[in-house]
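Contributing new records

If you add data, match the layout below exactly. Sequence lines come first and carry their own label; structure lines follow with theirs. Keep one chain per record. Anything else will be rejected by the validation script.
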Amino acid sequence: MSSQPVLSIVVAVYNGEKFLPHFFDSLIAQKLENWELIVVNDGSNDNSEDVIRQYEDKFSNMKVLSQENQGVSVARNTGMVEAAGKYITFPDIDDEINPKMYGRLLEIALASDLDVATCNGTYIYTNGDAPKAIFPPNKLPSTGVISGPEWLERGLNSRKFLHVTWLNIYRLDLLREHNFYFEPKLHHQDIPWTTELLLVSKRVQFINEQYYSYLIHNQSVSHSLNGDERSVRKINTYLKIIDMLLAIYKRYPEQVKQAPACLWQVGKEGLGITQALLAIQSPQIQKEMVQIFFDKGYWDIVWQHATTIKLKWRLIRRYSKLKAILKN
């Protein structure tokens, strides 16, 4: 009987034929032992499936699952159900993975029995701008083994924290113990996922070593929308995220006391909503969305969670502009 895989790599694929060869080659370059690759073809209508089949012979540990298109969250959930590893991770196929990444994260995770092992990464701009670290080293240095709430507090207080899954490996038993899943059809679902997971994690370690390159380009759904559609989508997304964060904080009050910057996070997300509201060009749509923001109590929630003078000041400046919209 084969032993348990030490790592499950779960990959959601939708129309990724041009990215898959390089992505699969980057996994081969990891030179890992005793791991599994779970590829979820999320209803691709290009040649992704053909590319996946071409690589099956190169991976003795590859599971291919197919489903109708339901989005990256559902695809990840499908893969997570099938995962058998001690640890699990969720990379994106259009990014760059350093050959040492998973070996290094597994090294620290297994040595210290971590719930979460995390590293730094690099922003790569396809327009030619200079690359830069995702977590500036002077803001977030390497840690020893600390609690999840402490890492979340440090990250949020740095004002440079990024809620993503792809810089981390997670202990799979922890995810199943708490019945974690990704919220279907929610853009930026990594925000509530990362927040809740860190609140329940007892052993976390961050190494300030850049092993993952996040490519910033224009090939995304959001760039196919016009300006107002994009703004409305952003507003609705972040209203949902605020609802989810508040529910999470209610479930884990003691952990939130250890990470009070979580409260600031709600205020910060609300500030982004006010910016999106002011960006709407259609007077009718703008007034409707601002009305929802106030009538459903989101302004009060955001204001109550604005825990810094700077954040309150920025909100005050936008309050009068939002109220003026309702008078027109």
